[in-house]
Amino acid sequence: MVTLNATDVRKGWSSVVDDVIHDKPQFIKRTRDKMWLSNLSVMEEILDGYTFTANRFVEEDGSVTLSLNEIDLIENGATEAEARNKLAEAIMEYAVEFYNEYALYSRSNNRKGHIPYIFKALIMDDVEKIGEGILCRDGKN
Fold first, then answer.
1. Which of 10, 12, 121, 139 is in the most buried spot, having the most CB atoms within 10 Å?
2. What is the structure's pLDDT at 141?
3. What does the pLDDT look like over 47-87, one tens digit per residue?
4. d(Cα 141, Cα 67) in Å, to the nearest integer?
């Protein structure tokens, strides 16, 4: 792997950032630590394959419940649009909470798989876009 030494990166920080923004991501090594620095558009492309999907349940009262498959979140609304919006808000709230508690959540076996979805939501940073992007399928009551 082609890596830059952290000391060299520190000395040429502006140049490295310019390269990352305008050319390509960079791999950086500091002692035994390895990291990757990229702009957000590269991360968006990488995460493009991750999609939020939900099972849709129409309740006896006519309301709609959406159960997110990738993260254990469930929301109900009078309409699918309302449930979708509530679910998107819940995704964003959870993403912020996860990020703020990253050291704990990312090491938890039942939450590690959430990482790409967390970063997808944080990079999207738009509840409306998140809601529009949720693929809903009929669930079985």
1. 121
2. 60
3. 999 999 999 999 999 999 999 999 999 999 999 999 999 99
4. 12
pLDDT at position 139: 83
Instruction: Write out the residue limits of the CATH 3.30.160.620 domain(s) in the chain.
Output: 47-138
Instruction: Give the DSSP H/E element, type plus range, for residue 92.
Output: helix 80-100
Q: What is the pTM for the complete model shown?
A: 0.89
**Torsion sign across C-alpha atoms 76, 78, 58, 55:** negative
Residue 112 per-residue DSSP state: G
Which segments of the chain belong to CATH 3.40.1620.10? 4-38
Contacts of 40 by beta carbon, 8 Å cutoff, 6+ apart: 123
Task: Please determine, looking at this structure, whether the domain spanning 47-138 carries the CATH number 3.40.50.720.
Answer: no
Residue 62 CB-density burial (10 A; 0-12 exposed, 13-18 middle, 19+ buried): exposed
Q: Is the domain 4-38 a CATH 3.10.20.30 member?
A: no
